[in-house]
Specification:
mainly alpha, single chain, 294 residues, Helix Hairpins, Four Helix Bundle (Hemerythrin (Met), subunit A)
Amino acid sequence: MSAATHHGSTPYYYVPSPSRHPAMAAFGLFFVVLGAGQWVNGHGWGAWSLLVGMLILLSTLFVWFREAIAESEGGMYSERIDVSFRWSMSWFIFSEVMFFAAFFGALYWARVHTLPMLGNLDHQILWPDFKAIWPSAGGGLTASPAGTVEPFATMGPFWLPTINTGLLLTSGLTLTIAHHALIANKRAKTIAWMWITVALGLTFLFVQGYEYAHAYSDLNLKLSSGIFGSTFFMLTGFHGFHVFIGMLMLLFITLRLMKGHFTPQRHFGFEGAAWYWHFVDVVWLGLYFLVYWL
């Protein structure tokens, strides 16, 4: 049951009534994982399982978030709940830092340890044609001298990645302007700058999609293009997915602002989305330097 309170008062720590939402979310995720696993292994019904699971999961999250918003706007969340949300978002972002650290670590290990090791004298008998040059982009320069990795060209920093860097850095600035406008209780200005931020995030995704099309069609750079191709698409692809999630966060925060939600004193929903977006910006800067420049 919910925490007992007098009418119109805020509980010390709000405890919601028992809910079916966690079970329904887990139920939907089960069909998502089952369907995705079967689909990639050639079973056509896996696509339908994936679709059903996504519909269950998204509809559950929609209702769940709507109830949480109603509780927040109804004054049920005290300062203790605010602190709890801040810790939760902090740990979530920390888990995302570790997620990307694993992929950056794979890139580091391949370049600094694996490649030199395969090119040393001990391995010349097994791989006499191998040359320890990064990136391994052509015949005789691959980790597969037998030619199983097709020749490809690498993606440099100019111009699409540099344009996307400018877009993300600008979006971080516009988001900060919107935050200060909200603190100053200038709602119209906040909403305008938030829409600009959302538009910049959406533009980033379109530019990255064009970059991928260029990589596949013009550079023959694919996920199967050796360790360079796999690390390139895993890092940039997962980052693009995080940009998409962050853009959705900012979009829904903007829609809530238009409905009159948040005040200059209490707006952690806004702040949490901003934390996530700035995290995405920082990851991109590391990715831009380590993947496109080095």
